[in-house]
Fold each of these.
Amino acid sequence: MDELAITVIGPDRTGIVADVAEALSGVGANLSDSTMTRLRGHFAMTLICSGPTGEAVRKALAPITDVLSTVRTVRPESDGAAGGEPYLVSVHGADRLGIVAAVTRVVAAAGGNITDLTTRLTGPLYVLIAEVDLPPAVAADLGVRLAAAADELGVDVTLRRAESEIL
Amino acid sequence: MTGLDWKPENLGVDGRVLSVVTAPAGVLSAVGAEVDPTDPEIVQLAADLVATMRVSPGCVGLAAPQIGVGAQVFSVDVTQHPKTATTHGTFVLCNAKVVEASRWRPGREGCMSVPDLTGDVKRAGRVVVEAVLPGTGEPVTVITDAFEARALQHEIDHCAGKLFLDRVAGAHAIYQRRVYL
């Protein structure tokens, strides 16, 4: 069955998630994966859900007038999505244009797949944290390339294994 | 401190390999019952936990709720793990409680009962655990650190109906797990 990819963004306020989630459940939309976070006073939601038609969801969200939403139909993820070794990239330094572009280009060139990424700007400090799946045996070389890119940008970078212990 | 002077063979029964329950399942979220460690059923349960743990690749601990039994019994064996410092070998504890915990550290952990996710969880790097041994009912105090301390806290949580998901550090601290042992 096809799924719906939905984005909703609006000025943060109490109840914004409840309003959107209620509208979705009201038309039988079953939320699967989602991420919702506040970005500089805007509340942003990205959701995958299944059940209703895109049109039904658009209608259900229409009465929430202080948010901007998009709804589109997407194919479900195929089984056995590409794996890799999980790593974390941390970048921090003085804000300047192109940090994300430069760092993620280096990661992509190494065949690394970014699975999660957050950036924050607080005062003059820019911070980027990314979760990356890497192909086997590229980490050492990627570390060197990231360091070179960071050097050019005047920021600090670390690449480390996201170790997890299965208990 | 090394070893509890205890071996699974002391139980005197053969363990059965049982299947591991995965979330969502009521038994994983229910508080396990305190047990009589000398009860033959508990002795069998202890043997089953060790047997099931041993056939599960990379498994360093298994609690009774994970094989469908709501009881405060678990097995641990971290002897082969690279992050192990202190180890007490293979052992099973009943009615275990953490009585002292210190050196709290974050770490990413996963669970055989939540196979597709990992999460960042703060655990004590040093613990004192009081419990009784299955079979004899002998009271023991386990003082340990590092990975064995983490494993004990994870298993004691299972016995209290808690998963690592109940302790993750934040909304962004769970991760899809794509690399399997």
Note: Helices of chain B lie at 26-29, 40-55, 146-159.
Amino acid sequence: MAIPITPPEFDPALIARYDVAGPRYTSYPTAPHFKAEFDEAALRAVIRASNEEPIPRPLSVYVHVPFCMSPCFYCGCNRVITRDVTQADRYLERLYREIELIAPLFDRDRPVRQLHFGGGTPNFLDTAHMGELLESLARHFSFSHAADREYGIEIDPRFADAAYIRAMGELGFNRISVGIQDFDPVVQKAVNRIQSFEQTREVIDAARASGFRSASVDLIYGLPFQSVDGFSRTLDQVVALNPDRVAVYGYAHLPEMFKAQRQIDAADLPDAATRLALFGRALEHLSAAGYVYIGMDHFAKASDELVLAQRAGTLQRNFQGYSTHGDCDIVGLGVSAIGRIGDSYSQNARDLIGYYAALDAGRLPLMRGLQLDEDDLIRRELINELMCHGSVDKQAFGARHRLLFDEYFARERQRLLPLVEDGLATENPREIRVTSRGRLLLRIIAMCFDAYLDDAAQAPRYSRVI
Amino acid sequence: MQSKPMAGRLPEPPSPIADDGDETRFCGTCAFSSACIAAGYDKPELAELQCLVEHVGPFRAGEHIFRTGDPFRAIFAVRAGTVKTRMVDKDGREQVLGFYLPGEVIGLNAIYPEHFPCDAVALDTTYFCRFSFPAMSALASRIPAVQQHLFRMLSKELGTASLLAGDHSADERVAAFLMDLASRYAVRGFSATRFHLSMSRGDIANYLRLAAETVSRVLSRFRSQQLIEIEGRELELLNPKKLREIGQALLPE
């Protein structure tokens, strides 16, 4: 069954009205609800059970490299700023220990279909270190040799050249993700990230020449001094780079949570109207250039696997946004990394001290996690459907989970009602469907079905929806 | 803490749980009910004969119902859950002997040696009816139908073991295994095309004398051939006819 992709409708007044904080639902329940009670024994038990399924799921391995050479002021990621490359040795020593501890828990006939290096800055690690790390991973896990394996790496072009990218291709990476944010020099200066178009192009061209199958780039709107004109020029340059995917994230100014952001003066940030206009321009510009809006922050070329998966109804949310490999168990390696195994989530220690201490003591560096209960699983699937495919067939959903949809979600449907009245979604006895007006407000629609959001204390932890 | 709403939940589907009996009536799937009732013995009459049927459990996944060498005093009919029987050799290697579904009886192979020759381990939360064996054999001597029923169960138990003998391909073994489960569920009135595989793939592999990855590989192939659909442990047989053909050599007529 082909699912039509509804193009989003950009209505600034409507979006401004719904400009509240909300989770991105890269997981459900979201990470703040993970609990320390989910301990190493619990994690080992879920891994064991995952091996014993009739057809164990393939693996998706995420590796977090937390180091960055210099701080980008907008960043809300878990990272450590250093130029001391010996830090890499200390980190890798622990990462190898983690790999040695966790990899043997997975049966060897479970191929690593997806590998993703994120950060921080993965290319903080030089070619030799990378080679060593890949070798360790390949020795302890069973790397897939299938043509459709997706081995991706995030690259900061300021610290990578063509030779480095070629080396990454030789190590087996076939997807590259490049941070741009904005090419406007005024903005770049304000966020402490000076990166030329040429540097960026060198990296992307090198990736193509080295056989990488896919290149994606990240942009951010809502940065200090950003203007619609300046952002338009950035978008022109981005289109010229011809990436397969483009992510356009909204900057969330939360200086009380992220220290680096205290370098940004709130007075320099674009106002709400400009913020919206920036996203509106991105939407317009990328659509005109042939990109399809997937949802949330993500665009992809019409021929991209994400678009095909969305049409086929097999798209999934994951920690990187959207994924075509939702059937994998995710193993998170490195400081702060999150895994998703069976019906559980688990997160590693979020600082190096805790991460090192656990591994030095011979323990898995697990900090917290969650075993999803039946209600969590039901809502996770529902939110996934809404965010990936924009509709839920109530009958089929109810039959799958043994529930009367309208009764089970009576309260949630009440919450949805004003959204329906505003034209963000439609509801009838058969289905709930996100309208073109609602496409840009998926989080708001998904939030109606989040059982944990009654807890008002959680609200400030999330960024605004647009 | 969020409240977890339960309104709008539909009742559990007719799952393989035999728990509809009481003081005077047998459970619907009881291994002995038809034999006893046919002979005119209902539960109260059995009670008069001191043949008390005792409900035991729950046993949690991994718990032993009995262990190798335990003195044989009773047989157990599974009311709910799944059980595996197994032997462990002197090197600690496990050999899975069989799986038992609701309505089936474990412990029959202990009748002669009077000690259990194997372990019985719960694979999920299981409940049993415990039939004291001295009382049961006294009953069998009074009610020929019960004796016949016991003999029938015994010979079936022997027959099951031979399902796995011989030189058969992995495809044949796995197909026969699935069709055997299907027919056993069907006999008890449960769905023969959709069921939950409570046993781990390691146990299935051990039982079929295959490697775990072989079991998964065969299941993956059956799935891509659209013979089965499988999601986690939920299995649906899409083409039982074809599966029966594949497993034919190992299946009874």
Note: The first strand of chain B starts at residue 53 and ends at 59.
